[in-house]
Amino acid sequence: MSRIVAGAAGGLPLKSVPGDSTRPTTDRVKEALFSRLESYDVLADARVLDLYAGAGSLGLEAASRGARSVLLVELAPKAAAVCQTNAGLVNKALRSDIVSVRRGAVDTVLDSFAPAAGVSGGKSWDLVFMDPPYPMTNDELAKTLQKVALLLEEHSTVVVERSSRSEEPIWPTGLTRFAEKKYGETRLWFAEPVQVAAE
After folding, report:
1. Average pLDDT, stretch 64-75?
2. InterPro entries this protein is in (predicted)?
């Protein structure tokens, strides 16, 4: 059973998605990931986006550890329903509506946050988790990363979780990898925005 590892809702058990359609992040990996994120000082008061959320465990852990707001994005109906249940459990434990859920395709949701042409003020994020299905190709992931790169605050962090056998993601202009770590069958890639010089 998955649970919140630490923070204000630490120890809270979470519902899992039935079947094997999702790939939950293990508590060991989650603990190591959040220890690293806390050392980067990106959790406190962060606006967090959890893409391909599954049961929502990464975004929910961030909420427990001091995030300002968390949005879980999941397309699969069963997983989105579990996200909704878990979000309710965490919000109740925190006595706040920090966590919300949006059911939909990740690229469609990201497109909805982009500012309209010629209009500034699109939605922006401090911390983004991406745990795409392993069958997703690097080219497909690169297109989604390009959309994410346009929605980041200056000192934000993007975490991409992939199989340890997967190639490094193709980072778009404006996003650069600054760390990576392997945990058994899982590899985490950490990226941050970079200023692109105007031509």
Report:
1. 97
2. DNA_methylase_N6_adenine_CS, RNA_MeTrfase_RsmD, SAM-dependent_MTases_sf
